[in-house]
Specification:
The protein is mainly α. It has seven helices and two strands; from the N terminus they run ααααββααα. The chain folds into two domains: 3-76, Arc Repressor Mutant, subunit A (Orthogonal Bundle), CATH 1.10.10.10; 80-125. The chain has helices at 3-8, 14-27, 34-40, 47-59, 80-93, 98-107, 111-125, and strands at 63-68, 71-76. It has a two-stranded antiparallel sheet. Helix 2 crosses helix 4 (47-59) and helix 3 (34-40) packs across helix 4.
């Protein structure tokens, strides 16, 4: 191992870096510029790397951005539960047999989760709501 490799440790995947950036943005009280994100991150990401990550996440519609001075300020489009729901919808939309996927999903739910899902679906169909 050369000195550069020893000092940096293992290379992190883009998904890991995006998760770190997203965690910083979700903990913030408002939108952050790339410089603000970079100072809150642990690790050795450069400003330009943070800009690249934020731009990619904005392109994926994970973040909103608004002009702030000469930069943009970024914020998540939803909370953690919203992102999990988006991932679940994406998986469902990628499959041809939605009924089979939903049936397998429902079969794997605990009794408590199944009751909760029934309640949530019933609440949305309730015309008095």
């Amino acid at each position: 191992m050369d000195a550069d490799t020893q000092g940096r440790g293992r290379k992190r995947a883009n998904g890991e870096r995006e998760a770190e950036v997203l965690a910083v943005l979700q903990q913030a009280q408002g939108a952050l510029t790339p410089g603000e994100v970079a100072t809150r991150l642990t690790g050795d990401l450069t400003y330009s790397t943070v800009v690249t990550i934020l731009t990619r996440m904005h392109t994926k519609q994970l973040l909103t951005r608004t002009p702030r001075g000469r930069a943009y300020a970024y914020a998540p489009v939803t909370d953690d539960a919203g992102f999990a729901a988006r991932r679940m919808r994406t998986v469902l939309e990628e499959r041809d047999d939605r009924e089979a996927v939903l049936a397998r999903f429902a079969d794997g739910l605990s009794a408590t989760d199944a009751d909760l899902l029934r309640h949530l679906l019933g609440a949305e169909q309730d015309p008095d709501r």
